[in-house]
Amino acid sequence: MGESMRALVAATYGGPEVLRIAEVARPEPGAGEVLVRVAAAGTNPADSVARAGLIRDWFGEGPYVWGWDVSGVVAAVGPGVARFAPGDQVFGMPRFPQPAGGYAEYVRAPAHELAAKPDGMDHTAAAALPLCGLTALQTLDLAGVSPGQRVLVNGAAGGVGHLAVQLAKAHGAHVIGVAQDVNHPFLKTIGADEAVDYTTTRVADAYRDIDVVIDCAGDDGLVATLRRGGVFASVPGAARGPGSLERAAEASGVRVVRHIVLPDGAGLARLAQLVESGSLSVAVSRTLPLEEGAVAHELLDTGHTRGKIVLVVRDEEAGA
Ligand SMILES: NC(=O)c1ccc[n+]([C@@H]2O[C@H](COP(=O)([O-])OP(=O)(O)OC[C@H]3O[C@@H](n4cnc5c(N)ncnc54)[C@H](OP(=O)(O)O)[C@@H]3O)[C@@H](O)[C@H]2O)c1
Q: How far apart are the first and last CA of the chain?
């Protein structure tokens, strides 16, 4: 083996306890690729779903290094890469939904799937942004959110939801955020016009004539809140084929969007611009060292985290 690195390795599918620190081979960048020295790795429910083996058809044989969201410094570039050079600070979610090996000291990534880290944003925050930010951005684009529309975001305090709220506001929409009462002050700080508690209000009965629902919590019943011609974006249901949701939507004259987020360097650059202009910020509720990835996965598995949980891999500022 050439040079080695630390990574959080899962020898098998299973619970959070399968995530163990191990020494593995350091990857080499191929043509068109960049080797990133990872400073921070964001965690997502997708990491946990993959770890548990719920989408094993998508992956080959283990062992696996999970994790897609990374922020770090370019360590080397492969042949043909002109857009980045060693020392550049970059972020991204390479290869999704194919494995990327983000929970590691180094990751190999196609150059066009990365972007320059936003100025003024540290690696921890930048690692929290790519997968959820691109999901929100691409979903709002597909839904065609436009100024003045009423947009209801379900799961508004979560990773995708809190970014969808801010991006919908940046599109000029009136935004209703659905979350537990304890998260309502947070929803106000990120610009939601209204906040509603799904534990005390039947949201499907409380709203009508909504233009777009961005559902991040899996409640197909919210189709009832839409006007004819409205759009229902099912973020958790993206990988499922058409079914009862489409039948309910057809009866109500509603369009359904099912979209699995795609790596997109240009989209990341748009997110970076919004961060730099002050229109978008990412909420990191917890940071943990890479070694404690299993703790991050236990928290993800509760389904009630606010904002994002990030694994700190290396202190770039201190050069540790
Ligand atoms: N299509 C794609 O490509 C794509 C991309 C990213 C994520 N996803 C999926 O989309 C979902 C959301 O992802 P995420 O990263 O935002 O997850 P997350 O950070 O865990 O957020 C989920 C949020 O849902 C809320 N919630 C839980 N139960 C709820 C209920 N019954 N009604 C309303 N809200 C409820 C929670 O808030 P409270 O604490 O207020 O309950 C939590 O903040 C996950 O299933 C994920 O796998 C899909």
A: 24
